[in-house]
Amino acid sequence: METRGVVLRALNLGEGLRALSIYTELLGRVGIVVKVKRGEFPVKYEPFSVSQFKLIQKGDRFEVKEAKLIKENFPRSIQELHYRARIVKLLLKTELPGSKKVFKLVENYLSINEVFELAYPMFLSKFLFLEGLFPEVRKCVSCGKREIAAFSVKKGGTVCRRCQAEGNIRWNKELSKEVIKLTKKPFEEVRKDYKRELLPKITQVLEGHFKERID
After folding, report:
1. How many domains does the chain have?
2. Tens place of pLDDT for every residue, the chain, 215 residues?
3. In this structure, are 40 and 118 located in the same domain?
4. Do 137 and 48 fall within a single domain?
5. In Å, how far are 107, 127, 147, 168 from 116, measured between CA atoms?
6. Which domain holds residue 202?
């Protein structure tokens, strides 16, 4: 079977063996073991790289028959490394099935090399949407009222004054409007016009919402 894949994690096992966790377009997230020749430094097996894999299934595991590098995403700075590691951390927390849309999203956002404070919450919001985990942000998730006063991580969306509880995060319609924009529009368009001051709270809420849904 041939499929494109992104290397999420690579562990050296010794004697030229390397254990990889890859997210593939067709199979989703799978674990494989590859044999690396002595003296070889194959970028195609490094974290964040995108490669074309030819896999052979043996029982409940896969072996690599061949792999060809499509794009390396080696971080050129600490900021790039931190950004890409955050994306990978999200992907490693879920049992991801194969999805062309999710794979394209991962491929596109791992290649971004600037404006990370915007790129990360944009990836997170789009990922939640594609996975069917996006929170309710247009109305009260409890009663349906259009008033918005806070965000309830436990309930999975915004709540009105009457339905809010202790521990909810303060929220408003401006934040809802911004997170919808991050989800719907492409990165190159949003980077020209976004509200930087809202990003920390949006990131905090989306990360909390994601963690609550998968724990």
Report:
1. 2
2. 899 999 999 998 887 788 899 999 999 999 998 888 766 668 899 999 999 999 988 877 788 888 999 999 999 999 999 999 999 999 999 888 899 999 999 999 999 999 999 999 999 999 999 999 999 999 999 999 999 999 999 999 999 999 999 999 999 999 999 999 999 999 999 999 999 999 999 999 999 999 999 88
3. no
4. no
5. 15, 16, 32, 27
6. 114-214
